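Lab notes, practical 5.
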Amino acid sequence: MSVVPAEVLPGGALALEETVPGAAAELGPRARLWPSLAAVYRAQLSRARVARIPLLFVATFQSVGIMIMMRGVVDSRGEAQSVVAGSSVVVVAYVALNLLAQYFGQLRASGGLDHYATLPVPPASVVLGAAAAYASFTVPGTLVTAVFGCVLFGLPLSNLWILLAVIPLAGAALSGLGAACGLLAPRPELATLLGQLGMSAALLLGVLPPDRMPGIIQFARDLLPSTYGVEAYARTFGDRPDWAVVLADLGVCAGVGVVSLAVATWAYRRAAVR
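Output from the prediction step:
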């Protein structure tokens, strides 16, 4: 039997010891925000597709029923515009605010945040991806509600395209609030309660004509971010819409959306490390 020195072996222990001290372990590239957001969005969209469609039907049916009920109450074109615009945005509020608060509340209570914390994705992509997926479910119901309302109240359909801006901007603002409520609530029951209260506020303050509200209620209506989406859509029913004011209302929705999603991201980081 011949003995071969370990130094001459290419995979020997001494050869390994000589290379390890000077070698640095190479890490994988850091996950970027937008690819991670797209991955979370697709995963959330496929997961919630079956479960959320019946709830979306309920939201749409609820808004259509409200408009039918209000048909015998409103007596002016301005009030009809508020009812149709408010009922359309209520579909967004039901899904983006109410259901998202319940989802994150249950995710936190069941330990599901631990799964997301182990993934190499930025925290903002988890919040934004989930919010975008839930907001996407509101598009069909909002369009159906808006078309039905315009036909019911005799309003023009020419500026229906403004919903392509109202839905994502109002949805972003409400989704951020819903996610923050779910992540900050200590119990899932409280998250559900906060989501339902927020949706009820959007329903009452958004659908009812503002001219018939007391002053204190009108002030509360101005604090609700979905109000500006309602106003932006309602202004387009006029013969000569003031597009500068419409853009200003949409700008408020966008600003509140950025702030609310930032708060939701902070709440996600806070909840994930506990």
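Observations recorded by the TA: The radius of gyration is 25 Å. The chain is about 75% helix and 0% strand.
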